[in-house]
Request: fold
Amino acid sequence: MQVVFSERAYLAILSETTEKIKTETGGVFLGSYENGIWYVIEAIDPGPKSVFQVAYFEYDRKYTEHLINKIARLYQAKLTLIGLWHRHPGSMDVFSATDGGTNSDYAKLSPNGAVSVLVNVDPKFRMTPYHVASPLRYTKISYEVGDNLIPEHLLRLKCLEQSEHYINSYADKSHSDKVSFAKPEADFIRLLDDVKDKFTPCTVSKDEIRSGEAEKHMEFLIDSLLDDITYLTETRGLALKVEQDNGHIALSHKGTNGTITKSYFTYLPRRRLIVFSHGEVFYEYKTGLLSGLLADCVPTEKSFKAGLMQAMGIGKNTQGGK
Reply:
């Protein structure tokens, strides 16, 4: 097992360490795990509201969650949160008990665990990467730096021309008779019923759903849902109404029989999990889940925009995306 840093990610770690040379600092990693190698494509800074002290550091979680979603959209590949790094004082290159809790949370995000890196300046800069497994277990691993060591598809940005074309065609849709959009389909609920056997059910208590903490993560929740909302409204032609409701996002739709149905999406910060309701059951949600599962049911007569969205990585290509 090994970690490979892009030149940009490595430079970001150096830059952040330089800026906070007298205190602890850190960041999170955006990348991919392939064939036993952790590829760190982006190192996200910890945010302006982080706590920086000589022997203590705390992330600005709201900021990092927001920035992860924004930067991930720039790449064609599906990059995910794969780990984190932080600086320790002096020559301490092992984790503290407090670090263990944070590392354990990150390791639970993926069956492959996570990568956690310690930085020391004693007196020269050095890094010590670890693989973190769940339940909490550390394995020291080696690392290399270089874009030439990273698979090309992980570094590839989305096509500029396609992005511009998408924006222009959307803005001019009312003035063009050449752009054909997908015809409205059946009820939103029926679409979910078609793929519900592929959802992952989860148990959610009433206290979690009522938690006021969800309000603080509304922007993150909206960012996470944006791709699927775009897919359902523009590609599937559903007239969805999107509402904020006490820390939840409600997607409501008036079906062909006149019945209005709603699905509620909410973020559970203590579990770092987005869930949504369908019927009387809650399911786990990840960005692109619905578009990924429903893409196989796209009508044969695809609209120009639907094809363009797929080429841009919105829709079927967003699910898994590795």
